[in-house]
Amino acid sequence: MRSRFSAFVVQDEAYLLRSWHSTTRPACVEFDRRQRWTGLTILRTSGGSLLRTEGTVEFHAAYTVGGRAEVLAENSRFLREAGSWVYLGPIPTV
User: Fold this and answer.
1) Phi and psi of 22, rounded to 5°?
2) pTM of the predicted model, to two decimals?
3) H or E segment and range at residue 58
4) pLDDT per residue over 16-49, tens digit each?
5) Helices then strands (H, E): number in the chain?
6) What is the CA radius of gyration of the chain?
7) Are 48 and 28 in contact (CB under 8 A)?
8) Is residue 1 exposed (0-12), middle (13-18) or buried (19+ Cβ within 10 Å)?
9) Half-sphere exposure (Cβ direction) of 8: Cα atoms closer than 13 Å
């Protein structure tokens, strides 16, 4: 999760696409040039150990757009694909 956040900070589309699960990966990542990512707080993790193939990360990612502070809150699902952890997508909230 931290590496993906860093990739958003520097707008590294290639890394984001490589670290996205093949079944949910978009064709491209469009960045808002006005958006500035300012901080990441990991709230909780589950799974994701050496012997597991699935894990979750709940986080808050802070950013600004046009000088206005915002927070993206998400509980994300990660899976191992070809030996690497990749982002599958957000876990839907009920």
Assistant:
1) -60, -25
2) 0.91
3) strand 54-65
4) 999 999 999 999 999 999 999 999 999 999 998 8
5) 2, 4
6) 14
7) no
8) buried
9) 18
Distance of CA 43 to the CA centre of its chain: 14
- The whole-number pLDDT of residue 46 equals 95
The structure tokens listed for 50 are 């050496």
**CA–CA separation, 32 and 24 (whole Å):** 21
**How many residues are present in the chain?**
94
Q: Taking 90 as the threshold, does the pLDDT of residue 4 lie above it?
A: yes
CB contact set of 42 (below 8 Å; sequence gap of 6+): 1, 2, 57, 58, 59
- For the segment 41-73, what is each residue's pLDDT rounded down to a tens digit? 999 999 988 888 999 999 999 999 989 999 999
Cβ atoms of 25 and 17 within 8 Å: the answer is yes
